[in-house]
TrEMBL record:
Protein's name in the database: Transcription termination factor MTERF4, chloroplastic
UniProt-listed PANTHER family: CGI-12 PROTEIN-RELATED (PTHR13068), EXPRESSED PROTEIN (PTHR13068:SF24)
Annotated keywords: Chloroplast, Plastid, Transcription, Transcription regulation, Transcription termination, Transit peptide
Family membership noted in the UniProt record: Belongs to the mTERF family.
GO biological process assignments: developmental process; DNA-templated transcription termination; RNA splicing
Gene Ontology molecular function terms on file: nucleic acid binding
GO cellular component, one term: chloroplast
Organism from which the protein derives: Vitis vinifera
Keyword Transcription regulation: yes
Length: 481
């Protein structure tokens, strides 16, 4: 305070003692009284417009935007540049990116962002993390709020979080292109919670990264209202949580199916078409996509087709779906090719129908492979076609890696057996049978699961433990998703 008084006295003494220095000071005082808005000192560098000038400038800029077809109504509360030249620079910069006038009208707040302070730093960072320069305009159109973000405070932490989930560095741009809203999420909110819950039900932490790459939208789903209700409902159908965990790891998009509008109606639809409730868990585990299909239309079409062309009644069709649910999406022309091949070998239509019901995978096989297997069966093995009717699964085995080697071993031993006996077992058990070290009753036919992959009683996929629980068996089947 004392130094300020001294400076004031010194300035007064200087001005009064030197008339030449007094004149410019007096002129400034007289001129400033005409523009009271300039009387207060400013903390801003450069030219500062007064209130009247700002209003005039805003009107001029609004008129300019209107000439371009941009409606400036939403910009009333936004700080705009002081000159039309600066606004023109912003508009032209965005247009070079691919942002159109229509896009600007959908989100005019983009025009409140400085080219040098906002746009260039943000777009430069996005390109650095893997978004191609040619896609930057598309990214801005899909998520224009990114232009308001701080690279250091908001964008970089999200990218760091994704890397912490084991999302590969080269996949970051791809993930953000699919779901750019991730850049606006708080790390300690929905994203962390959804990841923690999925890990708690058995999802492997190392699989979270691939899940994010495949379907990043689950990071924005609330656990209590979206993810947990889906899990609880599927568990109520007989799917253990560890099976669901494996299913989510491979097909994270299942979490995007709406529970009330999609999942429950499709489950009810399966039941209405004769699928047994105890088989629902197996059907879903084999083909999780069935929960998100327009199922009623597909089932109706396929059921009619199976009845008309294959002479399989609705009950037989239901058994087919239980064993191979992927058939609901299989093209009917594809289905007919193996069927026509079998009919062409002189097998009656009624027997072909029985073969398809017992082994639905037949209708998805390549005819060329079926031909090779059939001719070996007839020419080398010299067996009757009725054996194929009894064991249609023969066509699902590899001719070179299983059928031929095992048949040759049988020949060398002078052993004759059924197709089921020497094909429907693991390599180890087959050797035990040949050495007569293992005796067993005739087994029932094989079961198919997990996307049509043949699962055979006693093979390497199934444990030798006889007291194995149903949950463990279903878990193993799901591993091959």
């Amino acid at each position: 305070m004392i130094s300020l008084l001294r400076r004031t006295k010194l300035l007064t003494l200087t001005l009064t003692s030197n008339p030449r220095t007094l004149r410019p000071f007096l002129r400034f005082l007289s001129s400033s009284s005409k523009f009271p808005e300039y009387e207060m000192p400013s903390v801003t560098w450069g030219v500062v417009l007064g209130r009247k000038e700002r209003l005039v400038s805003r009107v001029i800029i609004s008129d300019y935007l209107k000439t371009l077809g941009i409606i400036p109504d939403e910009l009333e509360q936004v700080e705009l540049p002081s000159t039309v030249e600066v606004m023109r620079e912003r508009v032209e910069f965005l247009q070079k990116l691919g942002v159109t006038i229509d896009h600007l009208n959908e989100y005019p707040l983009m025009l409140g962002c400085s080219v040098r302070k906002n746009m260039i730093p943000v777009l430069g960072y996005l390109e650095k993390i893997g978004i191609p320069r040619s896609k930057l305009g598309e990214f801005v159109v899909n998520y224009p709020q990114v232009l308001h973000a701080s690279v250091v405070v908001e964008l970089a932490p999200v990218v760091k979080f994704l890397r912490g989930l084991d999302v590969d560095k080269q996949d970051i741009g791809y993930v953000l292109m699919k779901y750019p809203e991730l850049l606006g999420f708080k790390l300690e909110g929905t994203m962390s919670t959804s990841v923690a819950y999925l890990v708690s039900i058995g999802v492997s932490p190392r699989d979270i990264g691939p899940m994010v790459t495949q379907y990043p939208y689950f990071l924005g789903m609330r656990v209590g209202t979206v993810i947990k209700p889906i899990v609880d409902y599927l568990v109520s159908l007989g799917l253990p949580k560890k099976v669901l965990a494996r299913m989510f790891e491979k097909r994270a998009y299942v979490l995007g199916y709406d529970l009330e509008e999609c999942i429950k109606p499709n489950v009810d639809c399966l039941v209405s078409f004769g699928i047994r409730r105890e088989a629902l868990a197996s059907v879903i585990a084999q083909f999780p996509q069935i929960l998100g299909l327009p199922l009623k239309a597909k089932l109706s079409s396929q059921q009619y087709f199976f009845n008309l062309k294959l002479k399989i009644d609705p009950d037989g069709f239901a058994r087919v779906i239980e064993r191979m649910p992927q058939i609901v999406s299989l093209n009917q022309n594809v289905i007919m090719k193996p069927v026509e091949f079998l009919l062409g070998r002189g097998i009656p239509a009624v027997d072909v129908a029985k073969m398809v019901v017992k082994c639905p995978q037949l209708v998805a096989l390549r005819v060329e492979l079926m031909k090779n297997g059939y001719y070996f069966f007839k020419s080398e093995m010299g067996r009757q076609v009725k054996e194929l009717v009894e064991f249609p699964e023969y066509f699902t085995y590899s001719l070179e890696s299983r059928i031929k080697p095992r048949y040759q071993r049988l020949q060398s031993k002078g052993v004759r057996s059924s197709l089921d006996w020497f094909l429907n077992c693991s390599d180890q058990r087959f050797e035990e049978r040949l050495q007569a070290d293992y005796i067993e009753m005739e087994t029932i036919g094989p079961s198919f699961c997990m996307g049509g992959k043949l699962q055979l009683p006693g093979n390497e996929v199934v444990s030798d433990e006889e007291d194995e629980s149903d949950d463990e068996e279903l878990y193993r089947r799901t591993v091959s998703l």
